[in-house]
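Quick sanity check, Major facilitator superfamily (MFS) profile domain-containing protein:
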Amino acid sequence: MAEALPVPLPVEVEKQKIQSSLHSDSSPQLEYDPEIEKRVIRKCDLRVVPPTLVLFALSFLDRVNIGNARIQGLTKDLNMVGTDYNVALLILFVPFILFEIPSNLIMKKMKPSTWLSVLLFGCGIMNMCMGFVRTYGELVGVRFLLGLFEAGTGPGSIYLIAMYYRRYELPWRISWWYTSGIVAGAFGGLLAYAIAHMDGLQGYSGWRWIFIIEGAVTAAVGILMKFWLVDWPEDATFLTPEEKAVMLARLSRDRAEEARMDRWNTKRVFKDWKVYVGTLMFFGIVNTNYSTNFFIPTILVEMGYKAVEAQVYTIPIYAVAAVFCLSLCYLSDRLKHRFAFILFGVLLGFIGYVILLTQQGLPVGAKYFALFTLVTCGYIVQPISVSWLMNNVGGHYKRAFASAAQIGWGNAGGIVASNIYITSEAPFYKTGYGVSIALLLFTGVMSGVMFWGLVLENRKRARGERDYRLQGEDADNLGDDDPRFKFAY
């Protein structure tokens, strides 16, 4: 057991000690009281994670509640025909994809509590505006602006969480973060069910109230987020000086093991194959996640349920997905393994798509079961794939880029999901299910590429084939290119 520090060091002195240790060839083990460490982790779990859960839940709800609004009369009132609904979905992803990396780089330069609260407030205002649109063109324009604000909420939250935890502590926290999206999906269905009864109030249709009420809640919480969200670990005001010193020390030890990249290095950031494989892996599963969130209410109506009933029947689907997500992510964390769990999720989703592709003549219960497998698949694979990449990139800048690239570029899967469910193919959606099953299998293939790539690279490092990097000018800024960094499977 490590001995406690006899006298708590001032934070600035501890920072200097940490910095010097990271650049020392001997890399001495920093000592701190394990009881204080437990208290620090507990405080982080209570102060870092909860606000990001709420932030993601509300931003995600604002992103997908158009699916609930659709079956309450959105398309009819705005005279939307053909692919109009698909275009309204995909337009959000254009700024979403383009601005996620710039957003994370902006957040690196300013307080996360300020930047993320501004983004969430903007999401709420744009969502409210959708409740007042009068034409299809106005809806598309507001959805584009919503995408601008949505762009930074996801990768920004993950980036912030990742800076407070050691890399093997991260997956469990990210699984909770993704579970908040599941809760948002379930709560969105319940809320839409309640709001549907407001149809006609003050002359507004029920679908308008969905946007207005949910947007108002998001905007109000966005203001509160400025005072609830934490900032970077060096500025953690919720910790005592002694606790902050311990937190910085434990993070330093972790970063010493994974090596540092605290200065921007274009070559090491942009030429890392893991970022692109991780993004493609995420791209394939994102299609499934958005397909289910956008189209489950519609699919349930086409199965014979009334619009109000369909809102309620989405709730058990998300509840089961939440249980599987937390359970398997917990096991993945304990076993320090990702690959097999991703393959399990892919297999589960494959079964669901096969059922829906062959649904003619099947009872409604079988088709309803398929929706359970698809949503569960998405919420197993997504958090584990994000954790897997975060576990295998080292350094402040590298993590900022990798989290934004994976989630930002990977969200192009949402564009695909927006366009493959063709109205004229209802209720069988052969194109939608066919493309989705192909992309799901693509995720499985990319996870295999990631696994074997990491295995081979670890073997090269074990043989000393990467040791030459320690002799270069940038030897103190290698990130995960440091040959002492061992990749996680």
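Posting the structure with no commentary besides this: The longest helix spans residues 430-462.
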